[in-house]
Amino acid sequence: MSEPTQQIRLIRHGETEWSASMWHTGRTGIGLTPTGERQATVLGGMSAERRFALVRCSHTITRSQESIINQRGAK
């Protein structure tokens, strides 16, 4: 009998004004655009039935929190 396979999933936040403009930075607290909110909601639907053993977030907590809330629903 083989051991269960473990997977690592890397999920990035949805679109921001800066990423839409092709400006990329990891040190701002810019929130999600309406498109980014929709992207997070779609991802949430895809991952809602999965259980994660560990979730790690970057220090840019605003986008991370918005993405998680949109993904999992405000529970």
Short structural summary:
The protein has 75 residues and is mainly α.
State the shape.
Answer: elongated
DSSP strand count: 0
Individual helix count: 3
Helix content range: 40-55%
List unreliable stretches of 5+ residues.
Answer: none
**Beta-strand percent range:** under 5%
Structural class: mainly alpha
The gyration radius over C-alpha positions equals 14 Å
Gap from first CA to last CA: 38 Å
- The helix/strand series, from N terminus to C terminus, equals HHH
The whole-number mean of residue pLDDT values reads: 74
Outline the biggest β-sheet: none
Explain this structure to me?
The protein is mostly helical and about 80 residues long. The chain is built from three helices and no strands. The termini are far apart. About 40% of the residues lie in helices and about 0% in strands.
Observed structural traits:
75 residues, mainly alpha, 40% helix, elongated
Any chance you could write out the topology, listing elements then pairs?
Layout: H1 17-20, H2 34-47, H3 61-72
Helix pairs in contact: 2-3
